[in-house]
Write a structure and sequence with these properties.
With about 290 residues, the protein is mainly α. Helices cover about 75% and strands about 0% of the residues.
């Protein structure tokens, strides 16, 4: 069940970690599955990204390696993306280490999760509206251009400033309820990128951080966390399900964002956040 939910929600701007956190309260154990379990099964969804974007990823890695022959200077746009992805991964890695204890304890409080679903849902809605996308599809882009806001940017024009801002937005996803894709997509729309470009860069940017966090948690689970290590079979199964479902979701999501507005995701976030807070007030959920 957790693997299915992870696969369905990881790439949508609705926060997979929030869904796993809330769902854990309704499982027989009635417990938070934990940041470690979440990080490990996210490897499954990121493997789906790696497979789907394999050509882009290979081109980026190859160009980045070749750029070292030029003294580290980007030789083309793929090499530039490689350097920017590394730069954009620094904030989430640094903040993840600095606030590790809080991320695994206080920040998993469901009141915080509910509030973040609402706050960043409103932020996504505002960014989508500002970008002129709520009118729908390419017509919204043409309307934005006629209004004097210019054409949406593609990844060909991404620079150092934008790469860093994308990274800072991704780092906010350390708090359940923010959403890794939601944060980076919101930042991308606010910086003037098209919905598809923002989504694609969100997928690429997530890979180093998610693979790294998952690997660290996996090593810790096998070495220190005996309870999680003992359940490695269930964790592996959840990761496999997350991979299969996540791959299908990537295909559908990229088609959706090139045609429709983010409005449904905004409404969903607001409804889920309100429901979480209401259930906490009614005593159905435990904040943790």
């Amino acid at each position: 069940m957790l693997g299915l939910v992870q696969g369905l929600t990881e790439f949508l701007p609705i926060s997979s970690s929030a869904h796993l956190r809330v769902l854990g309260e309704f499982l027989p154990s009635a417990a938070d599955p934990g940041a470690a379990f979440t990080a490990i099964i996210q490897i499954g969804t990121e493997l789906a990204v790696l497979v789907y974007f394999r050509r882009e990823v290979w081109a980026i890695i190859r160009s980045w390696v070749l750029s070292w022959r030029q003294g580290g200077r980007p030789i083309n746009q793929d090499a530039r993306l490689g350097w920017l992805i590394i730069l954009g991964s620094v904030p989430i890695v640094a903040l993840g280490f600095i606030f590790k204890d809080s991320i695994e304890t206080q920040l998993r409080n469901l009141y915080i999760t509910g509030a973040m679903l609402i706050v960043f849902g409103l932020a996504l809605g505002a960014a989508d509206l500002r970008a002129g996308r709520l009118a729908g599809g390419r017509r919204g882009e043409r309307a934005a251009h006629r209004a004097g806001r210019g054409e949406p940017k593609s990844l060909d024009g991404i620079g150092l400033r934008d790469g860093l801002l994308y990274g800072l937005a991704q780092a906010l996803a350390l708090i359940p309820g923010v959403s890794r894709s939601g944060g980076t997509i919101t930042a991308g729309l606010l910086m003037g990128y098209s919905r598809e470009a923002a989504a694609r860069y969100s997928f690429l940017l997530a890979m180093p951080a998610v693979f790294g966090a998952g690997a660290l948690e996996l090593v810790r689970a096998l070495g220190e966390d005996a309870a999680l290590a003992a359940g490695w079979g269930n964790t592996l199964a959840a990761g496999a399900v997350a991979f299969a479902v996540g791959y299908v979701v990537i295909i559908g999501f990229l088609k959706i964002v090139s045609t429709y507005s983010y409005r449904p995701f905004v409404y969903y976030r607001l409804a889920l956040g309100a429901a979480v807070i209401a259930l906490l007030g009614a005593g159905v959920l435990y904040a943790g």
